[in-house]
């Protein structure tokens, strides 16, 4: 389908995960001309990440819950005349224009040109990335994020090691552990900082979402079968090794997540998969001034109304960008947003489904909110910022002696968060160490690095 | 009869023919469609960069393009994210020291 | 002292050193205003002879002293500046400009086209020539402000952040008696307005008219690099842009490396009020100019942009010293794009005035009452 560069779409959807896919397909059904953009070459996003065709996977469904939902959407997308997928399109900024939005795209470092997609409305479905909390040794090779271990497995059919400890907090840990085990890894322990009690005590909510229960039970039984030990109220407080990880120390945590002295035990392993839940990826919207809210997990998400409109006119948001809640919720929100953008009334059943799933998500989020005592496992020389190698001691100096009391000032004074990842990995830790309360969203004027030549190309446009 | 559990066995993969990439001068096997990081992991390599300040080894961390820990020099271009770049036949990967731009220093 | 930017920090430092009891109040954090949003150029090269250049020369001397005292943490680098011209006419203009500056103590050396690459190997070919200004230097602004404040606190100054000044209290004689904040009353016979781009608001709280306006600027920040640019390098157009009063967008890039690794490419100038949205036009033009001066930068990644609001007064000179209309109100604001450079001199002059010493410079050109109320330029909010 050839398009002129200046073609004005009715809707540009940024992010081709469950929310974006559902939105693009539904909106196209409703008569809108849509373009679906994603930095990756294939649709699916983080959740439906799957092996490249060349790997010849006959049963990709074994790595996913609800795989059929994805294949259905993907088939509808391919068949649709009014919807178009553009892979390898990494959006680095949205700009408001007279007739809607200019969506600024980089086609990667090799590309000579930049690309701008124009659309009357934009739906943000950019998902989330993992929340990390530093600990001594977390920069060693072999320490990977829980989601990263899963992503590398789903897309590349590889494991970071043979004996992998899974640690951190949140429902993703169980999912990651069961795929790792299924793929042949030995998982000696799943180390979960929370007690899982927060939502288990509220059976009403769980009963309302039977699919979640089935999913949880599924993971649980797979893990039991393989002898994986679940260690609640515990954390990896140190990773050992020189050139790569050779073991971890696990300690029990008090109610505020402070490690309890004397409870440490060592577990040998050759990899550690760690994560503390997910953080919405919302900078494209916040740069336009979109308002945010802080969820029960402490993560900053976009503020949307019942029809998933952000506070920026013409900009909608669906899925994890509105607060982390999983693939089913993302699918429901994508569909709802499409209805709203097309000016159609919402389906009542869909509204109810979304409300139920959101409620469950908020409960989970509250249960896995990091306790303030986690800083108890830091040492002065623990690097907080991986990119710029800024240790705890330098951040404490900025706060205690130089008068920094918020993440931005800590950044300016220490360079923490100024490196390649622009604070995505160290952001929560820096915010916590700076003593900030209720910090707003991180500012990232460019959502990803852009080659200077491509920025320059914008001047002549 | 029990088959060894592997990622490929889990999804009953029947990959196309393997090819080679080069890592620090030696050949590394890669399957079609794998990222460079995946090919290196499969080969047991977890680090392909040393940091600017401490000279410490690093490799893939987030696996999804967010952390930029997996940077290395690919076909002479510094600072490429190996978790995103496909391993094309003949790709040349070199361990990157620091910013990887020493050639520009004046 | 109201304001914990670099100017407020320098005022606090010199006042505390002079033995005064000092409290610094800021509604945000240290360096949370323009100080944390720009570059740290300490330039004499871009200034024509006159009161601002006098201030800059004094300041450069003070920065050298401060750098010794504050240590490497403030990333002071006396690296010198190189101004380049792309045409013979431009080079002639630089020559005339430098001749004027030489008379008041600015050293500058003409660099013929064929020697430009000895100074800056990565410069684009085909330039007409340039000038080397060895006095130009650089600091990291936020660190400079924070360390000045740390020293001030060691000498007894008090720092309170997250506290907003809501009123300036005056006695029956009109003289300042202190300020009210959202937390407390602070009694003081002298209040220093170091609120930068927000200087008009604070002046108004004291009943004084001071037309400080924001002049927005963007700076591009690249990926970490080795040293690819040795000096601060900019094109001759920059001087014209700085001196311009136009509200429209102007860009002429100044390029410099930093000890942290990234190259900074600044800066655009436009008057659009306190609008924080990215101007794609501005950052595109900065990038294009940087790539034209240093083609090697075309392939590097830009990771971030800073945006800041320069505190601008219509005649491009700051307001420094006691306000003749409001006894006890001292201004130290409106330094536009040179506040980092001019901060120490401003601080020293204010503390001399506060302690009744003879001033090192004539403060008349910096008087706050030099703008009649009717000359306010029209400004969008
Ligand atoms: C893009 C850009 C590049 C620049 N590059 C350079 C350069 O290379 N070299 C150079 O010398 N200069 C440069 N500048 C200019 C320089 O940053 C400013 O001149 C300087 O920061 C001004 O310092 P300040 O302390 O006056 O203001 P600020 O740093 O803005 O400090 C003012 C403080 O006052 C506080 N405040 C305001 N109102 C109140 C109130 N009612 N109560 C309490 N607190 C209040 C604010 O919160 C703020 O912290 C640049 C500026 C920009 C935008
Ligand atoms: S592993 Fe994080 S960006 Fe590649």
TrEMBL record, chain A:
It holds the Pfam family Pyr_redox_2. One of its GO terms (molecular function) is oxidoreductase activity. Keywords: Oxidoreductase. Residues 9-331 form the FAD/NAD(P)-binding domain. Transmembrane segments: none annotated. InterPro entries: BFD-like_2Fe2S-bd_dom, BFD-like_2Fe2S-bd_dom_sf, FAD/NAD-bd_sf, FAD/NAD-binding_dom, Metab_Enz_Cyan_OpOx_G3PDH, Opine_Oxase_asu/HCN_bsu. Residues 384-431 form the BFD-like [2Fe-2S]-binding domain. PANTHER family: ANAEROBIC GLYCEROL-3-PHOSPHATE DEHYDROGENASE SUBUNIT B (PTHR42949). This is FAD/NAD(P)-binding oxidoreductase.
Automatic annotation (TrEMBL), chain B:
It comes from the Bacteria. The keyword Nucleotide-binding does not apply. This is Proline dehydrogenase. Keywords: Oxidoreductase. InterPro entries: 2Fe-2S-bd_N, 2Fe-2S_ferredoxin-like_sf. One of its GO terms (molecular function) is iron-sulfur cluster binding. It holds the Pfam family Fer2_4.
């Amino acid at each position: 389908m050839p398009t002129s560069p200046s073609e004005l779409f009715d809707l540009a959807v940024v992010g081709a995960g469950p929310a974006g896919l559902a939105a693009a397909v539904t909106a196209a059904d409703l008569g809108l001309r849509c373009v679906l953009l994603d930095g990756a070459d294939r649709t699916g996003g983080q959740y439906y990440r799957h092996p490249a065709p060349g790997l010849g996977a006959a049963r990709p469904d074994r790595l996913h819950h609800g795989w059929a939902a994805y294949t259905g959407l993907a088939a509808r997308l391919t068949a649709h005349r009014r919807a178009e997928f553009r892979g390898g399109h990494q959006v680095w900024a949205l700009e408001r224009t007279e007739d809607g939005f200019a969506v600024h795209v980089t086609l990667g470092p090799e590309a000579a040109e930049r690309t701008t997609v124009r659309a009357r409305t934009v739906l943000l479905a950019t998902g989330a990335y993992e929340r990390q909390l530093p600990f001594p040794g977390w920069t060693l090779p072999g320490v990977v994020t829980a989601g990263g271990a899963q992503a590398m497995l789903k897309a590349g059919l590889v494991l970071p090691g043979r004996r992998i400890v899974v640690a951190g907090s949140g429902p993703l840990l169980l999912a990651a552990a069961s795929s790792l085990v299924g793929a042949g890894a030995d998982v000696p322990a799943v180390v979960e900082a929370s007690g899982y009690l927060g939502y288990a005590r509220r059976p009403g909510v769980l009963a309302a979402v039977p699919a979640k229960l089935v999913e949880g039970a599924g993971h649980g039984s797979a893990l039991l079968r393989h002898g994986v030990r679940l260690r609640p109220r515990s954390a990896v407080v140190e990773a050992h090794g020189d050139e790569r990880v050779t073991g971890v120390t696990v300690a029990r945590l008090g109610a505020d997540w402070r490690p309890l002295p004397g409870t440490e035990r060592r577990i040998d392993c050759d990899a550690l998969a760690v994560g503390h839940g997910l953080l919405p990826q919302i900078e494209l919207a916040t740069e336009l001034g979109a308002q945010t809210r802080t969820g029960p997990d402490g993560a900053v998400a976009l503020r949307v109304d019942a029809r998933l409109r952000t506070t920026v006119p013409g900009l909608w948001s669906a899925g994890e960008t509105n607060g982390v809640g999983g693939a089913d919720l993302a699918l429901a929100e994508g569909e709802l947003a499409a209805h709203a953008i097309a000016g159609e009334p919402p389906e009542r059943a869909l509204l109810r489904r979304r409300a139920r799933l959101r409620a469950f998500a908020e409960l989970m989020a509250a249960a896995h909110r990091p306790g303030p005592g986690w800083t108890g496992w830091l040492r002065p020389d623990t690097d907080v910022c991986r990119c710029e190698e800024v240790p705890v001691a330098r951040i404490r100096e900025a706060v205690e002696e130089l008068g920094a009391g918020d993440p931005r000032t800590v950044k300016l004074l220490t360079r923490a968060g100024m490196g390649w990842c622009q604070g995505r990995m160290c952001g929560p830790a820096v915010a916590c160490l700076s003593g900030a309360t209720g910090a707003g969203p991180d500012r990232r004027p460019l959502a990803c690095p852009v080659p200077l030549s491509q920025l320059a190309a914008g001047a002549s446009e | 009869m029990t088959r060894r559990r592997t990622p490929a066995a889990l999804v009953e993969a029947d990959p196309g023919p393997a090819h080679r990439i080069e890592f620090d001068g030696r050949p590394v096997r890669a399957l079609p469609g794998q990222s460079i990081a995946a090919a290196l992991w499969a080969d047991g390599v977890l680090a392909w960069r040393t940091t600017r300040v401490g000279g410490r080894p690093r490799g893939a961390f987030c696996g999804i393009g967010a952390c930029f820990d997996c940077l290395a020099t690919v076909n002479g271009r510094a600072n490429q994210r190996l978790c995103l770049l496909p391993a094309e036949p003949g790709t040349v990967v070199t361990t990157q020291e620091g910013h990887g731009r020493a050639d520009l220093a004046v | 002292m109201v304001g914990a930017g670099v100017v407020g920090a320098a005022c606090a430092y010199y006042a505390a050193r002079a033995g005064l009891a000092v409290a610094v109040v800021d509604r945000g954090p240290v360096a949370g205003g323009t100080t944390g949003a720009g570059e740290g150029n300490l330039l004499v090269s871009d200034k024509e002879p006159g009161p601002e250049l006098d201030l800059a020369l004094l300041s450069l001397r003070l920065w050298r002293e401060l750098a010794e005292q504050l240590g490497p943490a403030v990333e002071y680098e006396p690296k010198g500046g190189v101004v380049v011209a792309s045409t013979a006419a431009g080079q002639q203009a630089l020559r005339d400009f430098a001749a004027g500056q030489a008379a008041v103590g600015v050293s500058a050396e003409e660099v013929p086209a064929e020697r430009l690459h000895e100074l800056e190997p990565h410069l684009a070919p085909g330039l007409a020539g340039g000038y080397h200004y060895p006095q130009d230097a650089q600091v990291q602004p936020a660190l400079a402000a924070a360390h000045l404040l740390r020293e001030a606190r060691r000498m007894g100054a008090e720092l309170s952040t997250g506290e907003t000044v809501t009123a300036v209290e005056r006695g029956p004689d009109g003289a300042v008696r202190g300020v009210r904040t959202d937390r407390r009353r602070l009694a003081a016979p002298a209040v220093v307005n170091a609120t930068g781009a927000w200087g008009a608001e604070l002046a108004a709280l004291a009943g004084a008219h001071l037309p400080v306006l924001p002049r927005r600027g963007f700076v591009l920040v690249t990926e970490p690099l080795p040293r690819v640019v040795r000096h601060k390098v900019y094109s001759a157009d920059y001087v014209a842009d700085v001196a311009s009063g136009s509200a429209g967008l102007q860009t002429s890039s100044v390029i410099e490396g930093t000890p942290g690794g990234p190259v900074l490419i600044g800066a655009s100038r436009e008057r659009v009020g306190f609008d924080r949205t990215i101007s794609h036009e501005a950052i595109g033009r900065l990038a294009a100019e940087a790539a034209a001066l240093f083609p090697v930068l075309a392939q590097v990644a830009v990771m971030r942009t800073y945006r800041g609001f320069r505190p601008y007064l219509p005649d491009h000179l700051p307001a420094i010293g006691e306000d003749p209309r409001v006894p006890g109100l001292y201004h130290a604001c409106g330094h536009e794009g040179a506040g980092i450079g001019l901060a120490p001199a401003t601080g020293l002059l204010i503390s001399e005035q506060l302690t009744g010493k003879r001033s090192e410079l004539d403060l008349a050109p910096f008087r706050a009452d030099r703008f009649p109320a009717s000359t306010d330029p029209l400004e969008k909010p």
